[in-house]
Specification:
The structure is a homodimer. With about 325 residues, chain A is α/β, with parallel strands linked by helices. Chain A folds into 2 domains: about 150 residues, 3-Layer(aba) Sandwich (Rossmann fold); about 150 residues, Glucose-6-phosphate isomerase like protein, domain 1 (Rossmann fold, 3-Layer(aba) Sandwich), CATH 3.40.50.10490. The first copy, chain A, has 12 helices and 9 strands. In chain A, helix 1 packs across helix 7 and helix 3 packs parallel to helix 6. The longest helix of chain A is centred in the middle third of the chain and has 40 residues. Chain A starts with 5 loop residues before the first helix and ends in a 15-residue tail after the last helix. The interface between A and B is large, with 66 and 66 residues. Chains A, B: Pfam families: SIS.
């Protein structure tokens, strides 16, 4: 399989899950001391991951948990954000301009900051009250944090059973998703390449909701647009019906991300609508992928990870089809702007 | 001027402003009784207006004010939403499916509902604890509500002066924006028509932030996509730099909405970047429009209304250029889905 190191991926996820003790220690301390609000702050892909953590908790937890976009936080700010507030953020490099300024502003206000910064030597680490440095697995780290917050708040009684299943089976299950998706992904990438070459202006439409919305938004923008320079538009399943539907015709390329969380019914509505007006759509449904050893009731909390695993395979094949190394940038960080 | 009835528009805005007494009575009652959260709930265009009200208050008010998308509220729900919560919503028809279900759910939980429903005879009016029925001016109604909430919370000391200026000058000022924008809008509509006919697949990119974000999002989706069937993508100024920028080339059509609120610096960054990579961009800046009788300090709170006035003229000319009556729908409410 192209760009696939099974053992490395298993180790990566298991290493992420092994952060649990550290994460629990930080979260327990946060909740023991008390707070008036927890703000997941991000920009671009890390904002998308923040949205996933928030929507996951919104339906399950009475804790005051919110999302802020870093650039909005440093301009508009938030009057409800105080010295008793908590920031949670994730950053690979630790030097994204908006993120640095947002954390600086939070610290000036007197809030406490919990960072996941891949590079332990980044300057931003010094601003954190707590920091865990471990590569990748951002969504997993956020959900592990969310799970502990809810457990401590009496909203996650199945916490131990959940973690046991994750620690025993998740890494293997996600690798198996990649393996299962690979042949389909190779075919899909070929089709996308042919379509884009024939229709270079046409945006590819991505639709998704719930914890798939962060996946949909960031996949369209941070992968296809930023890393592959392919036009996209992303929209939630709910909002799809309030405007965007009108520009879908028989040949319009649409990909629907379906998950298994509380917003699945919204995706089902899109899945029911599309065949009536379009014949160039694709549905990627996390439900089609077995997650051995993981209970059905927990699958909704993993839908975005399943989608990420599927899309890892799509990316590998798109990069090859388009002969476009995903690391190159046309403008981003290439000059001052 | 095409589709322009000056006196009717002046009367419409002044009629909206004249609701102040009614709005104040409702808001005062809400704040006297107390609440644990105020939720602007909407879907599509009304969700976009809700986002505008929320971002307006976020930087100025410590009140717990949030936005919910109606479809997400009826699926995922919100555990922080209780019998002590308040819903504020707006609807023209009062029969949008998601909105009806969201209000029903809020009432089941025991929350209080304040509706602006244009059609006084709509069923949803019966579910409201308070309802004001007056046509159009949704954003004005929301901001008037927001202003009173902040005034009562000691966060809007200039309230009386603000309202005096609005009531004396806003309607006339907005009509003058339309008049000033008309010649430009006619030219722009011609260019858009020529571009779209030559490049039917290419999406038109709209970028905006702050209270312009609701305007950007809903203008792209509810006007161009839904009413004119033109492809669009909308993105905030902040997020533009985290992916979307990479697909902008010399001929890519981009329109930037600039306002005068706290997020203007984010739009200025886009305005500085675009000329370096693109020669097919347009900037619509609320600052270019005089608002006679209105103090500079209040202009930020009106930027989205100025943009709406400019876009009214664009719409009138686009409808004529494309020979596409904006009332027709391809799919929306045309069949069961």
């Amino acid at each position: 399989m192209l760009k696939f190191d099974e053992q490395k991926q298993i180790n990566s996820v298991n290493g992420g899950l092994a952060l649990r003790g550290e994460i629990e220690k930080v979260v327990d301390e946060i909740q023991e001391k008390g707070f008036d609000g927890i703000y997941f702050i991000g920009i671009g892909g890390t904002w998308a991951s923040s949205l996933q953590a928030e929507v996951y908790m919104r339906g399950r937890s009475a804790l005051p948990v919110y999302v802020e976009n870093a650039a909005e936080f440093i301009t508009t700010g938030n009057k409800r954000f105080t010295k008793d507030s908590i920031v949670i953020f994730s950053s690979v490099t630790g030097n994204t301009e908006e993120m640095v300024k947002a954390v600086e502003k939070a610290k000036e206000i007197g809030a406490k900051v919990f960072g996941f910064v891949d590079k332990a030597e980044a300057e931003i680490v010094k601003l954190c009250d707590w920091c865990i440095s471990y590569p990748e697995n951002e969504q997993l780290k956020f959900y592990m944090t969310a799970n502990r917050l809810m457990y401590n708040n009496g909203e996650f009684p199945e916490y131990d059973r959940y973690n046991k299943e994750m620690e025993e089976h998740l890494a293997e299950a996600l690798v198996n998703v990649e393996k299962k998706a690979d042949a389909w992904a190779a075919e899909y990438a070929k089709e996308v390449y042919a379509y884009v070459k024939a229709n270079p202006d046409m945006p590819h439409y991505f639709v998704g909701s719930g914890n798939q919305w962060g996946a949909t938004y960031s996949y369209a923008m941070c992968y296809w647009e930023e890393q592959l320079w392919i036009r996209t538009k992303s929209i939630t399943c709910a909002e799809f019906f309030h405007g965007m539907l009108e520009v879908v015709e028989a040949e319009t390329p649409v990909t629907l991300f379906m998950g298994e969380d509380s917003q699945r019914p919204l995706a089902e509505r899109v899945a029911g609508f599309l065949p009536k007006v379009c014949k160039n759509y694709v549905v990627i449904d996390s439900k089609d992928y077995e997650l051995e050893g993981i209970s059905t009731e927990f699958r909704g909390s993993l839908s975005h990870l399943v989608m990420h695993a599927v899309n890892n395979r799509v990316d590998a094949h798109l990069e090859d089809e388009f002969k476009h190394p995903m690391v190159i940038r046309r403008y981003y960080r290439q000059f001052e702007y």
